[in-house]
Amino acid sequence: MIISVITPVKDDPEGLRKSASSLLSQRGVELEHIIVSAGHDPELISYVEEYAPGASYPVRLIEGGSDGVYKALNLGIEAATGELVATMHAGDLWQRSDSLSMLHDALSKAGADLAYGDLHYVDSRGKRVRNYCAARFRTESLLDGFMPPHPTILARRELFATVGLYDQNYGIAGDFDWLVRTLLKAGAKSVYVASDLVAMRTGGISCKWRNRLYYTLGEKYMSLRNNGYRVSRLRLLKRYLRLFDHH
After folding, report:
1. What is the distance between the alpha carbons of residues 244 and 247, in angstroms, rounded to a whole number?
2. More confident residue, 238 or 150
3. Is the pTM of this model over 0.85?
4. How far is C-alpha 145 from the chain's CA centre?
5. Phi/psi at 225 (nearest 5 deg)?
6. Are 168 and 74 in contact (CB under 8 A)?
7. Which of 21, 89, 176, 220 is most buried when burial is the number of CB atoms within 10 A of its CB?
8. In whole angstroms, what is the distance from residue 4 CA to residue 235 CA?
9. CA 20/CA 52 separation, integer angstroms
10. So what's the pLDDT on residue 209?
């Protein structure tokens, strides 16, 4: 099965360069790479023109993702031709040369609709700052605000036809909302890969990060309520932070 890897990028050709180099290292899978740019970026276009001929898989550049990351992801999904879809944000790296192969094989063997694994966060210097282990995740964990790390998720493209694309009304929790619709409401089957698969770039653990967390929890609360799940804000916050301590 072909994996369509979608990379949203905004004013970050160097981040795209690192991610593309990481994707080139993947072995044992058939790929296509769809890059969605937030606007017309001559430096990014120049890099894609350099990168595409040397790749062993098709590379496409789409312009028009300026209305946010979920708009960019939706554009990529609509353009995808692979049976499976993965997301790789500019600056993120596959931790292993067989990361995608491990997800693909686990999904196929289990007859699952999506597969996911673990990741770790790195700062601007590439230093590991935090681990995100998804071993404790169960579908009902979404009711606590806990989800598997989105950059590790490999999903069947047909899921997006079944449950819909990402809701662009969310600023930061559109991936969580999609999982609520996919796993909780539609009952899709998932499988966990017990391996550190992705190095995800972040600004580091800071007050800014804490503010981002509380904003995320607010949107998660909205998503659960909008999808018919009655969860109190306090319960969501307490349970999410308790689970978060184990990552």
Report:
1. 5
2. 150
3. yes
4. 16
5. -65, -45
6. yes
7. 220
8. 37
9. 10
10. 56
pLDDT band at 49 (very low <50, low <70, confident <90, very high): very high
pLDDT in tens, 170-181: 998 999 999 999
Q: What's the chain look like in SS3?
A: CEEEEEEEECCCHHHHHHHHHHHHCCCCCEEEEEEEECCCCHHHHHHHHHHHHHCCCCEEEEECCCCCHHHHHHHHHHHCCCCEEEECCCCCEECCCCHHHHHHHHHHHHCCCEEEEEEEEECCCCCEEEEECCCCCCHHHHHHCCCCCHHHCEEECHHHHHHCCCCCCCCCCHHHHHHHHHHHHCCCCEEEEEEEEEEEECCCCCHHHHHHHHHHHHHHHHHHHHCCCCCCHHHHHHHHHHHHCCC
pLDDT in tens, 74-117: 999 999 999 999 999 999 999 999 999 999 999 999 999 999 99
DSSP collapsed to 3 states, 69-113: HHHHHHHHHHHCCCCEEEECCCCCEECCCCHHHHHHHHHHHHCCC
CA proximity to 136, closest of 156, 112, 116, 164: 116
